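Ligand-bound model needed. FE2/S2 (inorganic) cluster.
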Amino acid sequence: MQLTINNQDYEVAADPDDMLLWVIRDTLGLTGTKYGCGAGICGSCTIHLDGEAVRSCITKVSAAEGVAITTIEGLAMLSDDGEEVLHPVQQAFVETQTPQCSWCMSGQMMTAAAFLASNPQPTDEEIDAAMNNNYCRCGCYARIRTAVARAAEIAQEGAA
Ligand code: FES
Ligand code: FES
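Prediction:
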């Protein structure tokens, strides 16, 4: 089975019914994507399939064949001179010192990145609605909202 993750092709021996989370983490060692509930509830395992945020713990690997998969390891971009540049969401989460234990944070950032791609200038209410189903056991919700709003600003500054 061939998967394309973060613009890199991988040949993996997996059962089509295996959940993508375990192929990403255990088979390929991309452990930035976290296991929380395993039931599609908490959001810690969120990745992108063709830019759309999905929960990899309930997504069969067969659904990801032929689709561009992005994990937290692939969210940063390369500048023209080949240097890694953090995604605006990553920049904002660092700048606002949002994470506490960090377990939920890759899922938070992947959800936020997909959301801002579709809504680049959201209101606080829209941010809350978009992030509402990503749980944070440390209760960092106020800082997450601030960080997502700041990420929108950083993206706008970069586009100006
Ligand atoms: S681990 Fe996938 S939603 Fe919780
Ligand atoms: S920072 Fe600890 S679970 Fe969110």
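The longest helix spans residues 141-159.
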